[in-house]
Amino acid sequence: xxxxxxxxxxxxxxxxxxxxxxxxxxxxxxxxxxxxxxxxxxxxxxxxxxxxxxxxxxxxxxxxxxxxxxxxxxxxxxxxxxxxxxxxxxxxxxxxxxxxxxxxxxxxxxxxxxxxxxxxxxxxxxxxxxxxxxxxxxxxxxxxxxxxxxxxxxxxxxxxxxxxxxxxxxxxxxxxxxxxxxxxxxxxxxxxxxxxxxxxxxxxxxxxxxxxxxxxxxxxxxxxxxxxxxxxxxxxxxxxxxxxxxxxxxxxxxxxxxxxxxxxxxxxxxxxxxxxxxxxxxxxxxxxxxxxxxxxxxxxxxxxxxxxxxxxxxxxxxxxxxxxxxxxxxxxxxxxxxxxxxxxxxxxxxxxxxxxxxxxxxxxxxxxxxxxxxxxxxxxxxxxxxxxxxx
Amino acid sequence: xxxxxxxxxxxxxxxxxxxxxxxxxxxxxxxxxxxxxxxxxxxxxxxxxxxxxxxxxxxxxxxxxxxxxxxxxxxxxxxxxxxxxxxxxxxxxxxxxxxxxxxxxxxxxxxxxxxxxxxxxxxxxxxxxxxxxxxxxxxxxxxxxxxxxxxxxxxxxxxxxxxxxxxxxxxxxxxxxxxxxxxxxxxxxxxxxxxxxxxxxxxxxxxxxxxxxxxxxxxxxxxxxxxxxxxxxxxxxxxxxxxxxxxxxxxxxxxxxxxxxxxxxxxxxxxxxxxxxxxxxxxxxxxxxxxxxxxxxxxxxxxxxxxxxxxxxxxxxxxxxxxxxxxxxxxxxxxxxxxxxxxxxxxxxxxxxxxxxxxxxxxxxxxxxxxxxxxxxxxxxxxxxxxxxxxxxxxxxxxxxx
Lengths: 391, 402
What we know:
By secondary structure, chain A is of the alpha/beta class. Helix content of chain A is 49%, strand content 18%.
């Protein structure tokens, strides 16, 4: 199979992307986001911060149909592919928008691979869906879950983020254990939990109301994260034990590509914001962007951002049209994205000078979102090792 | 890899090109060709490469979209297909790359009818090889400070000065020449000429590079006569015309034929992976060392990214502006190429010291030679530093350094 030369980025996708951008520019300008994220937070004396989630905004997003974008038409969705989902996600990243969309899109592709009709229809009905795949070790491997049947969710406590890191296990039809590093958990209606049993890894759907959600204190202000604790929690089977590993492995290409798209959007924001600052900030009687010591690193931010963005659309298109190359291209996309997140964040703070590392500076909000994204679902070296294993 | 979705006619043309190149691939030369066309100095190589280019022209792979009146084949939208097939076929490069890549596109835009009719056909057939006389000892990155003078004398211009880094200078019939007609007007005091190389007052002296190769030349111009009808565009318009030529050199503009390189970037990556697998260190292959895997896969990822950049550059709503991606191509490609060659040297360890001509050298010493030659990419045609200025100023709108 071959990919369409234009990534399958057709007029419909282009209009959708533009509509998302205009919507977010209007509804969640940076000033509004800053207000919601409130005042400074002293890590030694700070009070517990409630994760901010604008349910009205999310309702409006759902009225526009973004949540069911990738759900097949047969299940009541719009039936678009990963290229369209990545295009939306890029805009979510550019706006650093706190919402359950990222996880719901990622879950959609996992549910599609599992052919889990009932859960796909829950998404159509407006229920958000989070991924709880990994165990505590953070290894991100498919079998990292710490949940057992009776029960574990997608990631275990180890922080490895390997799919086999889940600490949840299965006993009969209930799950017990803890799933780690669950993103935007406080915004979710359901979780798809990876859990171990004698028959292997399975995927299960658990309503958020049935799980104990313990929020982590995290660096990123624009997302939240939690452990979800299950004890003999009833769960619906999404993908049977033994079959789920292959399902997760395929869906991971889409999951990696979507987080990489988020990074690409945020990196473009970092590039544009740093460029504007370099035009207006004056030192030695000139805008600092005149000096090549500032100009050249900004150009390097553009180069890094563009490489990532191109690899994201290539990976998305491969997932939609060329499954045999999807894994390699998804690893390239997230490898590139993680390095770009690191580099653009570093330069955006450094080139803003003293103001750049204050709480007041907008760049810190994106810097911390990117720090989170950089390691979420694997950093650059981790993905490059995965590619090397394929060669 | 993605394929362009082509009409039936174009698919037929693509198959024709592919078959023709397969059947007509020339046998290798006795002494291997240099890695790049700008290093060609020997008469045997010149004759072999001119013959090859002429055959490709006659087969319709060069000047495919150029009007028949100028020696072209009169198609529309077929050149990219022909050039793509030439690149894929791993056939020898086209020796007249400056003629095809810079002279022809410039003449098509700025040339008179007479200039186009006279000069384009022998560019395509390689009967007349072209070189470029832009850089001077005192005008490299800051090209606009060039000092070679052009003084009007009746219907002629008298040229005095010297040019440097002139690839193919010793083999060329014609030079694209920038000379200053007005010392007081920096940008509007430069005029663009077509200068004949075989005439009194033109002296070509080879420059030996760090590799030992001598494809570059110095060209001394003493009272050289250029008739006024060989001026391109208006007196004083030379800078503007030169910028359009440099755009061609930087790979952003229209083409009249592939500047065929014998190696695609991905094939170089796969060679390096193979080299790492075949090279043993401490009883294991170098490839089994995760540190080397990481370095090599990072370069693979970035090479893939460059290819995807050029794919994305054609999509208006995804390219961030028409020039943003094309202007990165030469800069990023040359820097990645340099790193890749250096990684190859690292993989070989002490064997990387063995150079071209040594019987034990890996791949005939091509990695050390290739590494040194990558500086041509990072320095010529606007150094990487100048490219970053251009990107910062033209794409991001940062204040001009000069």
